[in-house]
Amino acid sequence: MTTAGVVLAAGAGRRMGRPKALVDGWLQHAIDTLTGCDEVVVVLGAQAERARTLIVDRDVHVVVAPDWETGMGASLRAGLSVIPDVLPDATRCLLTLVDLPDVGADVIRRMLAQPERSDVLARATYDAVPGHPVLLGRDHWAGAMGGATGDRGARDYLRTHGTVPVECGDLATGRDVDRADGTAGPTARQPIDD
């Protein structure tokens, strides 16, 4: 049983004023939290070459979502579609976002403690509010990719397939940061959708 970690970091960060992958330390932090995964994939898009220079001394696989401008769905599809090449025997993947600065390795460990099955479908919750990361068993990849369009990501798929909540509110706020002043935007805590 193996797990791929996927960092979604392709967006332009319009509310932030720059791609979130370029915010000081965020990309490195997101990658470092996934040390419990067997392989890590980083999905870039906006200013991808510049963001790639921030990934130093880390053994990760970088994929650039060619249609990243169409929304979160493009990033999700790019990340999931490359896993069979990066980690052919992967049973599941853990999807996280670059803009979760207070989500640390302790949250990741709790998520990875979920069953190592190809049908697992779980997401972190913070005081019972759904958030990220999301753990997708291999059986769910095609369905999640099929519904990942525009900025909807896998929201509808997760909603209709009964994810198991994994409470992490004792470890972090799970708040995604959307603006330079540190506040969350209107889509905060929407699973694979911001």
Describe the secondary-structure layout:
Layout: E1 2-9, H1 26-33, E2 39-44, H2 48-52, E3 61-64, H3 72-86, E4 90-97, H4 105-112, E5 121-126, E6 129-137, H5 141-146, H6 155-160, E7 164-167
Parallel strand pairs: 1-2, 1-4, 2-3, 5-7
Antiparallel strand pairs: 4-6, 5-6
Commentary on this structure:
The chain has 194 residues and is α/β, with parallel strands linked by helices. The chain has six helices and seven strands; from the N terminus they run E-H-E-H-E-H-E-H-E-E-H-H-E. Strands 3-2-1-4-6-5-7 form a seven-stranded mixed β-sheet, with helices on both faces. The longest helix is centred in the middle third of the chain and has 15 residues. About 3% of the residues have low confidence.
Salient structural properties:
7 strands, 194 residues, Spore Coat Polysaccharide Biosynthesis Protein SpsA, Chain A
Spans where pLDDT lies below 50 across 5 or more residues: 186-191
* Mean pLDDT rating: 89
> Mind summarizing the main beta sheet?
7 strands, mixed
Instruction: List the helices and strands in order.
Output: EHEHEHEHEEHHE
Question: Nutshell version of this structure?
Answer:
This protein is α/β, with parallel strands linked by helices. The chain has helices spanning 26-33, 48-52, 72-86, 105-112, 141-146, 155-160; strands at residues 2-9, 39-44, 61-64, 90-97, 121-126, 129-137, 164-167. It has a seven-stranded mixed β-sheet with strand order 3-2-1-4-6-5-7, sandwiched between helices.
